[in-house]
Specification:
The protein is an alpha+beta fold. It has two domains: about 90 residues; about 70 residues, no CATH class. It is about 45% helix and about 20% strand. Strands 1-2-3-4-5 form a five-stranded mixed β-barrel. A hairpin with an 8-residue loop joins β1 and β2.
Length: about 170
């Protein structure tokens, strides 16, 4: 498992813990249990990097969570989409594209394929983002990305147009 895949699991765990904390403060213990059931095996998955545990998370725990009554399921869809795409292309990353004229700044997620050190080509992905006409960089654009200021979780934001002639990723 590479660092990016580990980070995706850590993001899932992080957001689930935030959900648990919020639900706990509201005295909603049974809903905390649903959130905890979803992620309780992720620490062992990360410690062992056992592909069988990854398959178990994807096929069993994620599927059970999707069937649950959790109000937070949609918070994980983009992470799952990225994980799914990375199964076929390990150079796929979630990229957040600014929306033109938005104040405060609004970012729309999509998938980008890494083609250079900090350069990605945005892809056309159904079900991700909103009206692509409003994106600062449309699908197909090559963009340079930087981590969002202060985001320890590594959220990548498209900052400027890049060139496809940069050093390729191995």
């Amino acid at each position: 498992m590479d660092k990016h895949d580990r980070d995706l699991y850590l993001k899932i765990l992080y957001y689930a813990l935030l959900n648990i904390r919020g639900l706990g403060k509201m005295g909603r213990g049974s809903e905390c249990a649903i959130e905890a059931d979803h992620v309780h095996n992720i620490p062992e998955l990360l410690a062992t990097e056992d592909p069988g545990r990854q398959t178990h998370y994807w096929d069993i725990e994620r599927t059970l969570y999707l069937k649950s009554k959790s109000e937070f399921k949609s918070a994980f869809h983009l992470l799952w989409k990225e994980m799914e795409i990375r199964q076929h292309n390990p150079n796929a990353y979630m990229i957040h594209v600014p929306v033109e004229g938005s104040e405060p700044l609004v970012l729309q997620p999509t998938i980008g394929i890494r083609i250079g050190f900090n350069t990605y080509q945005l892809t056309e992905n159904e079900g991700i983002g909103t009206d692509k006409k409003t994106w600062k960089f449309p699908p197909g654009s090559v963009v340079e990305c930087e981590p969002m200021n202060g985001d320890a979780m590594g959220m990548l934001v498209a900052k400027r147009l890049g060139t496809s002639g940069e050093d390729k990723v191995g």
